[in-house]
């Protein structure tokens, strides 16, 4: 047994041992606040068991293992439906950035341990009402004066800001520079005076996203991460961290097997639904697509295991799998007739077709909209030119609004 | 499964050799002729030992398998391979190995390995790619009936034929050179892809040797169909990638409205989608080749075949579109891939056949 096999076995065994306390069934019917409390207990148990901060260096409270260890554990963890959503951003992006850019290493270690244990939560304050895919078009201002900085403006889509203790923030420090150059990166105390968090509901009823307002929020210069004007590079480094995230060829919707089982008892025109040519075509094509994505994922793991960098084709997963999930979920609802109209808010997207369907559009936006992913593939992999950008090189404050 | 260094080197060398020896003008000329193939391609295949790759060593082969043959097929697909013999030769090798008849193996395998013998595999009939009860009949050592649209049919020296018999379905080998003109007629099909050497083959008492009968024949037929489908999927993936790259290169070079057309999202996104289909097909091909002989091989082969059909169809369709007017000229040559995408989609069972086969594997329900 290799080291990785042993790791996987140990992960599987531990997850199975805590599933009754934290898994899907234990969480059924809980309110979000109750679920969060279960989540915090799960994070503490995970920390004690030695599965937290897998790629974070040991001296900062992590395990100091490879990205592959992380992907293997997180894949199993997602399959077990553990309550990790609240901590997904918190433990993924901000922590490595603090390690890299923050000088007070003792403080960083304290924050990391608290975040890994689920005691503290971090959010990522990037997107704004007028800056999503075009992140560098953001308008939140950071003005330097006296001891430190003053932040004014608004962030949007900030996941779980309503529970967050801290955040990492990118803001415009110099509007007279072209848009990518005038940005600076900070960490923020979410409980500081002038920070207002307003949760809002998504289309599926979930309350995960927030508007965050900054009104004259004072930030010390020691909270700056990276050089003044270097914020965009720090933000890019942040987004790169997630390139080793666990992926799912089913787009975090139900698998093809669930579609087949759903249809086993249904008929179309008096014949078994599974004998209908249209249904068979959908099953076969979606399965072939997802098998391909899964082979790409498994191959990437093998390449990582061999100590090499996986190919760029890993970028395809979200784009293709979520579209597949969206259409298959529509059809799964249609084929159930009136039963397909039922809806349980907050149901698990890998087990519930309505939850999968209504949540799919969110997945097609979050973490890179489909159109941005296509642009990235075209530009970074195929070497095609960037889109025409009229704001390129223009000082931010001279770009027509 | 990851390719090892040797396999990578082999793919590179194959690509280099084929790039040097493929002449598009020659391929275009073939389109206007029936019964002809690209001699240079076939000579290269024999000289490079591709014909021997998957033949066991004791019969003069290299004892490798679908993975290596798939790599060659992918490179052959990239240049619109000049002859269909590698895929069908492998089908014949599989059929012979299934028979386990030492005399037959010793007679045919060394010659297939050396490329002295070209094979056809004739399963399809009007009502399907693999009829369970073929209309072609086997009686008293002879075949009767017609197989339509047999690839390699015009050039093959031997054919593996599925036929009905009192013992159920049989897989039979016909030594085409030994059959008289009365016993065997081949009628050329003037096709949009003449290099595939399509023929209707009518057997009127041609002598045949049974390789397998009954359930064993059905099993062997399905397995060799799946193996050939995996090779073809590699070929389709290679063709799709070539089309994607040709369209990419053209989009970088061709300017309109003051910029390369590759800067327009309508073109960029189309190319990015093609890239996705190519990589998904490639991943399925590699997986399927590595699953040869395993319980889920048929499922993996169907996935490879379906995604490769989609990739090649989409890549040719969209590459031609991106090329604008030059995509539809004779000399531009993109239609070589367009034609090949279609012929390969039809050979070895179309997408509907493989969808049904895969759906049956996944659901347990027949169509």
UniProtKB/TrEMBL annotation, chain A:
Residues covered by the Acyl-CoA dehydrogenase/oxidase N-terminal domain: 37-104
Pfam families in alphabetical order: Acyl-CoA_dh_1, Acyl-CoA_dh_M, Acyl-CoA_dh_N
InterPro entries for the chain: Acyl-CoA_Oxase/DH_mid-dom (IPR006091), Acyl-CoA_Oxase/DH_mid-dom_sf (IPR046373), AcylCo_DH-like_C (IPR036250), AcylCo_DH/oxidase_C (IPR009075), AcylCoA_DH/ox_N (IPR013786), AcylCoA_DH/ox_N_sf (IPR037069), AcylCoA_DH/oxidase_NM_dom_sf (IPR009100), Mycobact_Acyl-CoA_DH (IPR052161)
Flavoprotein recorded as keyword: yes
Acyl-CoA oxidase/dehydrogenase middle domain span: 123-217
Domain Acyl-CoA dehydrogenase/oxidase C-terminal: 229-381
Alphabetical keyword list: FAD, Flavoprotein, Oxidoreductase
Top-level taxon in the UniProt lineage: Bacteria
Cofactor or coenzyme needed: FAD
Family to which the UniProt record says this protein belongs: Belongs to the acyl-CoA dehydrogenase family.
Protein name in the entry: Acyl-CoA dehydrogenase
Automatic annotation (TrEMBL), chain B:
Domain Acyl-CoA dehydrogenase/oxidase N-terminal residues, every copy: 5-116
A Pfam family: Acyl-CoA_dh_N
Domain Acyl-CoA dehydrogenase/oxidase C-terminal: 230-350
Highest taxon listed in the record's lineage: Bacteria
Family label: Belongs to the acyl-CoA dehydrogenase family.
PANTHER family: ACYL-COA DEHYDROGENASE, ACYL-COA DEHYDROGENASE FADE28
Protein name stated in the entry: Acyl-CoA dehydrogenase
Organism: Novosphingobium indicum
Source species taxonomy: Bacteria, Pseudomonadati, Pseudomonadota, Alphaproteobacteria, Sphingomonadales
């Amino acid at each position: 047994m290799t080291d990785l096999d042993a790791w996987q076995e140990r992960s599987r065994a531990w997850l199975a041992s805590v599933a009754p306390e934290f898994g899907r069934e234990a969480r059924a019917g809980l309110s979000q606040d109750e679920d969060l409390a279960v989540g915090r207990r799960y994070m503490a148990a995970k920390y004690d068991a030695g599965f937290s901060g897998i790629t974070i260096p040991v001296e900062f409270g992590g395990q100091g293992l490879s990205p592959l260890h992380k992907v293997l554990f997180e894949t199993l963890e997602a399959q077990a439906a553990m309550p990790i959503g609240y901590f997904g951003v918190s433990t993924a992006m901000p922590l490595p950035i603090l390690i890299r850019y923050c000088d007070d290493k003792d403080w960083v270690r304290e924050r990391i341990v608290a975040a890994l244990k689920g005691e503290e939560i971090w959010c990522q304050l990037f997107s704004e009402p007028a800056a999503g895919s075009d992140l560098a078009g953001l308008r939140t201002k950071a003005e330097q004066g006296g001891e430190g900085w003053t932040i004014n403006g608004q962030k949007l889509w900030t996941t779980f800001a309503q529970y967050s203790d801290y955040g990492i923030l990118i803001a415009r420090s110099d509007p007279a520079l072209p848009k990518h150059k005038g940005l600076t990166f900070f960490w923020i105390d979410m409980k500081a005076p002038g920070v207002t968090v307003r949760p809002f509901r998504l289309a599926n009823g979930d309350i995960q996203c927030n508007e965050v307002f900054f009104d004259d929020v004072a930030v010390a210069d020691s909270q700056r991460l990276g050089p003044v004007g270097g914020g965009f590079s720090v933000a890019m480094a942040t987004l790169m961290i997630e390139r080793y995230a666990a992926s799912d060829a089913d787009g975090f919707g139900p698998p093809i097997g669930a579609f087949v089982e759903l249809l086993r008892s249904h008929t179309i025109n008096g014949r078994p639904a599974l004998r209908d040519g249209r249904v068979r075509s959908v099953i076969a094509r979606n399965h072939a697509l997802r098998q391909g994505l899964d082979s790409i994922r498994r191959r990437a793991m093998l390449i990582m295991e061999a100590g090499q960098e996986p190919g760029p084709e890993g970028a395809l997963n979200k784009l293709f799998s979520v579209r597949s999930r969206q259409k298959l979920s529509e059809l799964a609802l249609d084929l159930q007739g009136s039963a397909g109209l039922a809806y349980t808010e907050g149901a698990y997207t890998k087990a519930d077709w309505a939850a999968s369907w209504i949540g799919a559009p969110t997945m097609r936006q979050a973490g890179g909209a489909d159109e941005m992913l296509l642009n990235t593939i075209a530009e970074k992999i195929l070497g095609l030119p960037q889109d025409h950008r009229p704001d390129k090189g223009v000082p931010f404050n001279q770009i027509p609004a | 499964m990851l390719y090892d260094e040797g396999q990578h080197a082999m793919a590179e060398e194959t690509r280099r050799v084929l790039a040097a020896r493929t002449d598009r003008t020659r391929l275009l000329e073939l389109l206007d002729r029936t019964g002809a193939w690209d001699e240079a391609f076939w000579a290269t295949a024999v000289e490079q030992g591709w014909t021997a790759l998957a033949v066991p060593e004791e019969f003069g082969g290299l004892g490798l398998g679908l993975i290596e043959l798939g790599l060659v097929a992918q490179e052959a697909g990239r240049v619109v391979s000049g002859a269909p013999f590698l895929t069908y030769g492998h089908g014949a090798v599989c059929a012979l190995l299934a028979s386990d008849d030492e005399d037959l193996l010793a007679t045919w395998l060394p010659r297939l390995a050396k490329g002295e013998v070209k094979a056809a595999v004739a399963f399809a009939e009007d009502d399907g790619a693999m009829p369970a009860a073929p209309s072609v009949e086997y009686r008293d050592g002879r075949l009767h009936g017609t197989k339509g649209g047999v690839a390699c049919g015009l050039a093959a020296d031997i054919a593996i034929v599925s036929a009905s018999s009192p013992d159920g379905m049989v897989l039979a080998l016909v030594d085409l050179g030994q059959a008289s003109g009365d016993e065997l007629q081949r009628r050329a099909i003037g096709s949009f892809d003449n290099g595939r050497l399509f023929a209707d083959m009518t057997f009127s008492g041609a002598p045949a040797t049974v390789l397998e009968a009954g359930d064993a024949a059905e099993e062997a037929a399905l397995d060799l169909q799946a193996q050939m489908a995996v090779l073809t999927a590699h070929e389709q993936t290679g063709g799709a990638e070539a089309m994607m790259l040709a369209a990419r290169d053209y989009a970088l070079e061709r300017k309109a409205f003051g910029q390369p057309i590759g800067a327009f999202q309508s073109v960029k996104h189309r190319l990015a989608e093609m890239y996705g289909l190519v990589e998904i097909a490639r991943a399925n091909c590699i997986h399927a080749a590595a699953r040869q002989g395993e319980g889920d091989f048929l499922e993996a082969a169907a996935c490879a075949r379906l995604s490769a059909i989609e990739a090649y169809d989409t890549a040719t369709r969209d590459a031609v579109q991106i090329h604008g007017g030059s995509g539809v000229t004779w000399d531009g040559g993109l239609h070589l891939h367009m034609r090949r995408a279609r012929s390969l989609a039809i050979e070895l069972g179309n997408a509907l056949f493989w969808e049904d086969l895969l759906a049956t594997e996944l659901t347990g329900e027949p169509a």
